[in-house]
Amino acid sequence: MYFSKKESTKKMESLKECTGTTVSSSQALPLHTLHPLRRTFFNRVFASVYTCAILALVYHHVLTLFNCRNVAFFSVTLSILLSDLVLAFMWVASQSFHMRPVHRKEYPENLEKIMKPSDFPALDVFICTADPYKEPPINVVNTALSVMAYDYPTEKVSVYVSDDGGSALTLFAFMEAAKFASHWLPFCREKNIMVRSPEVYFSTSNHSWCSETEKIKALYESMKSRVEHVVETGNVSDEYVSGDEEREAFSKWTDGFTRQDHPTVIQVFLENIKDRDITGHLLPNLIYVSRQKSKTSRHNFKAGALNTLLRVSAVMTNAPIVLTLDCDMYSNDPKTPLRVLCYVCDSAARSDLSYVQFPQCFRGLNKNDIYASEIKRVFEINPLGMDGLKGPDYLGTGTFFCRRAFFGDPSTFMSPEIPQLHPNHAVDKPLKSPSILSLAHQVAGCNYENQTNWGSKMGFRYGSLVEDYYTGYWMHCEGWRSIYCHPERPAFYGDAPIALVDLINQYKRWVIGLLEVTFSKYSTLTFGIRRIGLMGLSYTHYSCWPFWAIPITVYAFLPQLALLKGVSIFPKVSEPWFLLYSFLFIGAYAKEWLEFILEGSTFRKWWNDQRIWMIRGLTCFLFGSIEYLLQSFGISASGFNVTSKVLDDEQSKRYEQEIFEFGVPSPMFVTLATSAIINLFSFFKGFLDIISGNNMEGLFLQMFLAGFLMVNCLPVYEAMFLRSDKGKMPTKITLISTFLAGALYAAASLIF
Q1: Hey, which residues are catalytic here?
Q2: Are strands 285-290 and 157-163 parallel, antiparallel or unpaired?
Q3: Backbone angles phi, psi at 518, to 5 degrees
Q4: How far apart are the first and last CA of the chain?
Q5: Residue 458, phi then psi, degrees to nearest 5
């Protein structure tokens, strides 16, 4: 959009409405541009052709089904038909990402010519942590310091840290961070450094060293050692506490204080009207919040923590823009907020704008990303397509919200229970004033959802373990739009799991949360598609992820078991239907590979991505679906398991060497190892038959499938039979899987 002289008065009034500021007139200057991707036409043509091929395949299956002569072959054909119908449905849903993909570009340099920094809207930053042992406080501190050091007026930045673990260790870490910030922020300004996480900055060598740098590094290392020592001992000793104010803060941790049952703790470490750094500049607000917990009240996991921060911040600062960050997701570009203002300060884009989403990017990935931790399709490729519709889904971190979007749809405002929570409420008292702190403690209570709309029609939404996905889904259903901002320099970097079990446990939690949405009253399959059309298909594709377990499991076992018995279930090479199968397989894989390459990836990363897709289907997708089913019958209940951010040296070394990490005897590895064994033996059985001179024309596709899966399972074979390190497949899992493979072969002998 552009600001011209003729429009200046109108734009100034619009900006007043959004930010309470005034901008000066200027020449026409673009704040952002949008360009459709050139591959859109190809996407649509390919989708048309591929749809015809899918219909032909379904016709072939139905024809085969009616010609079945026995129950066993009928059951096999029906299983294959069901699997292909799931694959077809997921493919159709995914086409919503390809109908109108777009790229955006921002011009923050033009923003500074239109607005003065003093006119920028205030920014509240929410950082959530839940366990000081799985999420080391020093990492959370680095995240906070990186955003406190934004190239943004410090008097307009407030950082809120939600400690859902209610730990004095985390409180101490931020007490130390507040002191270090007075040195770190002026150092960042003076040196104009881009990476403002001290841990990352000092661990890299692409900066100049001087006496001042050494001094700041020494201060950081001293702070880090104190924080890590406190975490290691599990106690904040008196030697680290100085002054009555600090002692009073820790006095709240009494004998009856537990992480599941404790009163609200709110501690203001820095206040931007009086606290200054060593050069005399004001420091941003820094507030620690641990909401009230009670064993008799639901706490609603991360969504509950975010809603508490939304309420507490409304009382204390009430900035019109809210940034949500994971505790390990540090800022990699200090000018990121200016990119957001390029959209927020554009009246045409702002009227129904709910949030600006940045992609999740990860540091420390090994060369070929063996666990597909980039999740490139979800975090980079698919959002381009969603941005051409109503905007990307909420990814849970790196998201700048307009506070107004949490209170009803664009045309209907939903009032909170007290006026101090209204997004337009003006805070006119200092953070530490008794009335402000008293009200902040009150709104952070554990029963505020009772008889209010919080979590259902207001704030972050409850009802699913994937609160980010569900909140974004609801905002789009209410008529809001979002914007995907993908600058060349990543705005944020985070940590990815370096152990396979951590990865699949994380996905299993997502699977349960997605199924909670799929089978809810507001299912994406029904409510979503009716409400937001093509955009609903995008959300449906994600909510139906667990269904991948059906075709992946069937194709990982059934054709191979038939191959072991010499039974053909696919067309012969000489039959025309063979060409259809070949086109469907090659077409799907070639197009996915091309998309990865066009978005700057490599063949090896794409290969690892499709391998992890198969592994997920046999592990977390399958087990997550089973756990959800049991939970639906009241047999078990899911919880929120925090992904560990603690790095083990041996694991890190194996990860850098691109060696898969098993090590833990997880039940989810049993199906994976069993499939690997069956594919291995079926392939070599077929290979021996070829050597023996048997005609394998009818079994070629089954041979190919077994060989393809066998190549994907090479890390599994290595972990089962060739390795002796701690990351190998546990012997218990190997023995159980071997027994199950034998049992399945015996069952196949009775069927075929």
Answers
A1: 164, 468
A2: parallel
A3: -55, -40
A4: 66
A5: -140, 145
